[in-house]
Specification:
Strand order of the largest sheet: 1-2-3-5-4
Strand content: 35-45%
Number of domains: 2
Structural class: alpha+beta
Distance between the termini: 49 Å
Number of strands: 5
Shape: elongated
Length: about 110
């Protein structure tokens, strides 16, 4: 009897792995690095800036680290005050310090869903 159940179990296991693999990859692409998040730029004042989540529902603030990089839409390094309200940005924060941004990237149209 068990010799009939084992192949059935193995097929079910293979099917489960096959179906869940794209979901796991999709989660990784959507979330990205745990220290990185995407949202809309709101405003900047000195080294402090505000952004919202992707949907624009929740607003939160960050402080730009002294050695942080700001990358414009053209892929060139720029300044925080050059960003425009409503631009989609990707913010990378320090490990263990979600308020301090080490990198701010303006996303191009094709990257906005990542």
């Amino acid at each position: 009897m068990s010799y009939r159940v084992l192949p059935l179990f193995l097929v079910a296991l293979a099917l489960a792995v096959f179906v869940s693999a794209p979901m796991v990859a999709g989660e990784k692409d959507e979330k990205g690095d745990k220290n990185t998040h995407v949202g809309k730029f709101v405003s900047a004042s000195g080294n402090d800036f505000k952004m919202t989540d992707k949907k624009g529902d929740k607003e939160h603030a960050h402080t730009l680290a002294a050695d942080a990089k700001v990358i414009g839409a053209e892929g060139k390094e720029g300044k925080l005050d050059e960003l425009k309200a409503g631009q989609m940005i990707r913010v990378t924060t320090k490990e263990g310090d979600p308020k301090t941004a080490t990198k701010v990237e303006v996303l191009k149209e094709k990257d906005k869903d990542k």
